[in-house]
Amino acid sequence: MDVFKGIELKLLAFERLLHMHPEWHGKLALVQITNPPRSSGKDVNDLHRFVTELVDRINARFSVDGFAPVQ
Predict the structure, then answer these.
(1) In angstroms, rounded to a whole number, what is the distance separating the alpha carbons of residues 13 and 61?
(2) CA 24 – CA 22 distance, rounded (Å)
(3) Cβ neighbours of residue 68 under 8 Å, at least 6 residues apart?
(4) Does residue 13 come out as left (phi exceeding 0), alpha (psi in the -120 to 50 range) or beta?
(5) Which residues, listed in sequence order, are joined to residue 67 by a DSSP beta bridge?
């Protein structure tokens, strides 16, 4: 996971979109494919934890009938 690719910003924007447009619940998915981190350290670990928690939050809030919006 590259800390400069803006994954967290993409997820936050997707969460906002789903919040503002409930008509898209169960119809829209974000598929994010990432490469393993090229380095290790506190920054990378913190980002990974934040992104994982964000994905869990979005899926918990906006899942419909087993459909998870973030894949």
Answers:
(1) 15
(2) 5
(3) 29, 59
(4) alpha
(5) 64
CA distance 36 to 61: 27
Indicate the SS3 state at residue 64: strand
* pLDDT, the chain, mean: 89
Q: Structure pTM? A: 0.85
* Cα(12)–Cα(4) distance, integer angstroms: 15
pLDDT digits (tens, 9 = 90+) for 20-44: 999 999 999 999 888 777 777 888 8
Residues in the chain: 71
The CA distance from 14 to 28, in Å, is: 10
**Cα–Cα distance measured from residue 27 to residue 24, given in angstroms and rounded to the nearest whole number:** 5
Q: Name the pLDDT band for 3 (thresholds 50, 70, 90).
A: low
